[in-house]
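Help!! Second protein's tokens look totally different from the first
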Amino acid sequence: CQRQKFGADTLIRIPDNWSFAEAATALVYQTAWRAIFEPLQPTTDSLARHPKLPADAVIAVTGASGGVGLAAVQIGLSLGAQVVALSRSESSRERLRNVGAQHVFSPEQADLKKAVFASIGRKGVDAVVETVGGPMLGLGVHLLGYGGRVGVVGVLAGVEGSVPIPSLMFKRASVHGIQVGEIDPSESVMELSQIVEHLE
């Protein structure tokens, strides 16, 4: 086994009150962070330095009880956003309520879009963290408001999904694929520092 050397500028200190197990989840949180913020900025450099959300932001998370999903819920809450959490399991939905998600639904609920819009008090969310794939991609686009965006990070329900093109057009919405494996180390350190700050 060859030893790998890492420069000090590519490392971040584990927060004093974090366990090694908690620190090992960094990639999960960074994936969620990117899914929320990446489409907002034209370059990853400005993304790392100046992430912003509207003051009244609403974030929806599919597969919200999974690893990236739960991280997205926690980050959304730490940013002061309203969070719409979708999960098929009743026990998982209860857990999401206990974590603090304000609007929790089953993705199989009848008239889901109408119920979500009534719950958040407006027509559409600002961002969807899409962790499931397959048919959930189309649902994510339907939940968007004007200028909204979907960050796609998972394919557990399938590698293909249909997108309602009129919704993309008339909402001026967008769908973005998220990949954290190729981030420059210095930007990655910057993002992780911000994530730790918000979670603390």
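Here's the second one for comparison:
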Amino acid sequence: MDLVPYAVPFFLLAIVLEYAWGRARGNDTYRLNDSINSLSCGILSTTIKLLGLDFGGRVFTLVEQHWALVRLDAQSPWTWLLALLLYDFCYYWFHRISHERTLFWAAHVVHHQSEEFNLTTALRQTSTGFLAGWVFYIPCFVAGVPAAVFVTVASAHLIYQFWIHSRHIPKLGPLEWVLVTASNHRVHHAQNPDYVDKNYGGLLIVWDRLFGTFEEERDAEPPVYGILGPLASWNPLWANLHIYAQMLRDAWHTARRGDKLRVLVSRTGWRPADVAARFPVVKRPLAEFRRYDPPLSRATAWYAGVQFLALLAFSLWLLQAAPALGEATRAALFGYLLFGLVAVGSLLEQVARGRALERLRLALTAAAALLLAVGGASAWPLLGGLIAYLLGSIVLLARASAAPAPA
């Protein structure tokens, strides 16, 4: 059983509570633009599954049926304990290699782009993990872990990692030696030189201590969050694709045939020498780090926030309605959702194309309303809601467009 859908309401409630707690204590760890971008990435990572890109699941089925060494009993508590430990061990190596090799970093980087650290960061997940990340969990099925047990353990493992994305939780004494906690996970998300590529564990920090990748959080060196080559964008699509794009550019421009392939399997940060010389990537020292935070008018902030909540509600409806929809319909609705999240991200960047994209999205929504209008009386309640939404959006967008740009 996948436990994550049941946890989503608690995730959203916890985010609200953490925000309120931070505000009450004068230690607010949230920014609207950053939080919307993190949650947009999370929405895409969940809804992209509706496109049926589950390569890993098909491989797991084949391995379980034909290459499992044993058949473990799903009713035995020992099977569950073994599955949890084996999954966590595989996760450690998956996570570590996702930092050490560019191909896997291209997918994982999404989770590290936020320059804040709060519970929305936990939901900032990749949409391209289906490409190769599943490879690391094949040993679970070779060892005979039943598919139902694997899915439950994997989802519980992911849910556990939600609470550790907080700056409000202090060190937890002896638990720091055994479990992944908020303190040692803050280190993992930091770009400080001493903290980079440390603390890969998901549930147990024991693996990091055993394999030499553990680093303790120190009061004298507060974590600075984000990646060494900042994304500098609120576009959730670009957040998922920017490392792949760089890899393709490097492979295209390098003159050496061997380097064209090496780009795919190289250690993270490596680039062909000829390409690095022609197209250098400047990474500023930590002392010069400044968070990406383009000024945002209050009217635009309100508009972007309202539209994001509308798209969040739409995504939750889409996940519920998906089983009754055809593949083409699911793909079209996912495309609309993606377009909307990109438009909201562009609005948060205060660029002209943001308003143009948003006007186009509203035009597409109006076209959908027209289709409903010819659908008969049964569609009228939904049509009325869409018309009200469109009129309200047009008024709010006009106010946002007329608002003076902040200094």
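Reply: Different proteins will give different token patterns, so don't panic. The CA atoms of residues 174 and 181 lie 11 Å apart.
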